[in-house]
């Protein structure tokens, strides 16, 4: 999966579901130290928050946050990123970096 070239863009993994369809949509993006960018406040998400995606065809799809998890970059379970959480039919899994900037 390629990394987005801009902090204002996200990358959708083409091996994951399309937004609004069964399965898990997997999207990655950049967080930034100054809170700019598409994922600038990703670390502030809490269970119950809503996230919207607008597809290229203009359809808006909404998801509810059910879990927030921080994992070591060397321990990311990509198989779980391609499955909806729990027994859900569809879901959205987001990934970005966290921690201090060097």
Question: How would you explain this protein's 3D organization?
Answer:
By secondary structure, the chain is mainly β. It has one helix at 78-81, and strands at residues 10-12, 23-29, 50-54, 60-64, 90-95. The chain has one helix and five strands, in the order E-E-E-E-H-E. The protein is globular and about 40 Å long. The two termini are 23 Å apart.
SSE arrangement:
Layout: E1 10-12, E2 23-29, E3 50-54, E4 60-64, H1 78-81, E5 90-95
Parallel strand pairs: 2-5
Antiparallel strand pairs: 1-2, 3-4
> What order do the strands of the largest sheet run in, or round the barrel if closed?
1-2-5
Beta-strand content estimate: 25-35%
Largest sheet: 3 strands, mixed
> Low-confidence spans: pLDDT under 50, at least 5 residues?
none
What is the molecular shape? globular
Helix content: under 10%
Summarize this structure as a short list of keywords or feature phrases.
mainly beta; 102 residues; two-stranded antiparallel ribbon
